[in-house]
């Protein structure tokens, strides 16, 4: 006869899986039931523990222990009581035996007499039937879940009432739960990845239909005889807390503590698709490691860990776990919902990439694993082979991608638009959908917006697609109102969409043909005004605060690029206190990285407005911060790029001061790390831009140090990278702006060396690019000044070959461009140069 568990072991039932061996023992042992009742009663009485916990960490919401104690089991003594013996005839069904019990009720094996088939019947506990509104919603929700036709979701056949029981029948999956599947024999790695991929696909299907599970865990996943997973009880957890006023107390906290997301524990944030993404990560974690992300004897301790601790890395537990699967798992388990994958579909796609041997998106691209052994045997030779292969492969892959790109983008745009249209219609059609479904519709839009911004933000060649998608989102948002969805959510989506359009129109232009500051200024101001109003009503909302700070910072960056340094610096300093406060609320690397970026921009502002001491303070602070983040998060490409930018800015400062040794130190650090990233990311255009800029700066240093040969070598390398960029993103005018500097530097140096035949085409190309840019951004001082510079270089080439008429025409163009700028802006920035140009033109008449 099996002995009863200890009291401490019994309490594990509260924080763990209630359908396992321990739960079955308690179901059949009156003594253990009484002991567990006593412990739960004690836990309710100890709910005052929350106040001391509040003094330790702000993450614990007020009343957490009260909600926890109430949610674990309402009246354990009554809920498992049934007034019939098995087998039992219940209308069309014969109940044969108990399969299991959970938080809502009991699951029976039954025979459906009319169809002569075995089914599972879930009987809902009596305590859930006291609220008529909840019962009504039970029917509505189960019917909506019953409409989900997906191979990865256990279908619901029928919902009904028998005497004082609610029940529903569903497909019988006789192999048991995923929890039992794991305990029987740890599945192979690829089987694990495939199972979770299938679960993620099913979750995504449900999300597309407006249903969130909110209690994903191995015991809620059934496994058939072919090892295919099927999600059970889909949508029921969402039902049980749609409205706190409907709760009996049993589901104020929905979920099992070990598998709950931080937002479920805190009760401070709405539960979105991200909650289920976290659940997918928890399932993957347990399948890989054999245990849940957080375990413990005391439920309060487990919930505290969910909020405050990072789960132990799977590879620390088992070194044989592939790094890609660890990365996918930990991204799903990020504390902040915004830092997880935006959709369950993204999780499925990542796992599919792993299974196919392709690169995943969530971490820096590694050197190909298949070369790992070769590199270990002969590292030097292997790296040379790899670098050669990558260089040769660039043109082949770029050519292939250019053929496929438009088709792929068109399909993606069409897919996103269908999802958006469905979401908007769902939000508007409140006559047939409850308010919660309207809320889910705006969450769909938020998720799609997040995917657009995450996927396309830093890819120059993708900006056209990004612009089309953002305009689609804006169009859908225009059709919604506060009558349909939460006004704060609507305004947040609106502001983020406008901010995204500001960024993309700065790069590729607005509908009126303008680019740069002229194209984006109105968008930035609109987005900032909306975010400021939103922030006034949500000052504790970290996401709103960060978005506002970044919007102000990005607008400042646009002003800086136009050489409006006083205005730009004012914006940087306006964003600074917001970002510092955000860091006081969160110490995550992403938030600290944004502060580091802002500190470098503030330093750049101080450099251009004449405050050397403040420049050194802010540049050193930002540089150190970004360096630390690259060391603690070596997989963050964004952190690495910002660190490179800090090296560039500090190097520029030292070069300006003629501190050649110091400038060399920072520029070489910039170049070495950029080239290393280029070896890891051979097709990343932003990394290529960093490499081009690094060699350009080394060329500037060599030229100022009178080392002409070295300057020529560096400028040529800079142009090599720039021309790859020009091929990969020919429509991205902001990228072409950076490319033009490589043409300019080499053209100037070749003119100095009298290498006219080699330098002339470079000067012509530079003018072609800058004419386009200046024509579409005429009030931008830098665009105008740099066009004039390149025109003067081209005129000098003509003069060197005695082509005086051509040179005069170019000087005349310079005069016209500068005059127009002064008329448009009212600024006399080119007054002295106009006088010099008049003299040159007169001399050539």
UniProtKB/TrEMBL annotation:
Residues 517-545 form a coiled coil. Keywords: ATP-binding, Coiled coil, Kinase, Nucleotide-binding, Transferase. It comes from the Bacteria. ATP binds at residue 122. The keyword 4Fe-4S does not apply. Residues 93-355 form the Protein kinase domain. InterPro entries: Kinase-like_dom_sf (IPR011009), Prot_kinase_dom (IPR000719), Protein_kinase_ATP_BS (IPR017441), Ser/Thr_kinase_AS (IPR008271), TPR-like_helical_dom_sf (IPR011990). Its EC number is 2.7.11.1. The keyword Ligase does not apply. One of its GO terms (molecular function) is ATP binding. Gene3D superfamilies: Phosphorylase Kinase, domain 1, Tetratricopeptide repeat domain, Transferase(Phosphotransferase) domain 1. SMART domains: S_TKc. This is Serine/threonine-protein kinase PrkC. It comes from Rubinisphaera italica. The lineage of its organism: Bacteria, Pseudomonadati, Planctomycetota, Planctomycetia, Planctomycetales.
